[in-house]
Amino acid sequence: MTSKRSAHFPTTAWSVIRQAKDRDNEEYLTAMNRFMADYWRPVFYFVRARGYSFDRAQDVTQDFFTRLLEKDWIAKADRERGRFRTFLLTILTRFLSDQSAPRAPKQKTFDQQLVSISTLIGDDERRFEPSDEMTADAVFMKRWAQALIANVLRQVSRWCDDRGRPDWFEIFSRHNFPPPGTSTMKKTALAAHFGLSRDQVRYAVDQVNEQFVVLLRQEVADQVGTSADIDAEIRELESLLD
User: Is the pTM of this model over 0.85?
Assistant: First the structure.
């Protein structure tokens, strides 16, 4: 069973970009907004790590995605040339090198159609302060890895919902991706918490983990140049998340 949302919205970066490269596509702005909502954080954190103030970083991030549309930079994206995150970081670095005067106060057409960064900013972004311990590039890559996993987890959550088992996702999350400040829960503890048998918990974890791996590989495959790079990319993402 496939949800209506997943049927109409591509979930992986290159798939979204292919749709967004066609300005005549009725889903053009929708695709860009979806991509922006999923992957704005690496851009924002990179800008902050380059020394921009919190307020200025919001404006610069918004302007970057606006220019991405206006200047049709996305048309230069070529999957055969390698990883999408490398492409995005390259044009972002060039974009920042051209920044000088503060952004003009007038609003452009695309600004009113793109998701507003101010509505996406959360407490983590407000608390973040650049550190000398990580380069801006390293910050971007770490946040990209986090954004990719978050995107995969959203897909996994929808997969569980489609099967009428939202509890499976909660069990899987608590076992593998606990909330910040908490530790993973063992299957015995999960069984007691959810009022299930240990075998039922093990089955849920196994089923969801299998789907997570499938979706992770799909996401990664859509962001690297060749299928041979998938395993290497996953290993690198894991190292970025450590």
Answer: no
- At 170-188, the pLDDT tens digits run 999 999 998 878 889 999 9
CB of 21 closer than 8 Å to CB of 77: yes
| CA-only gyration radius of the chain, Å | 19
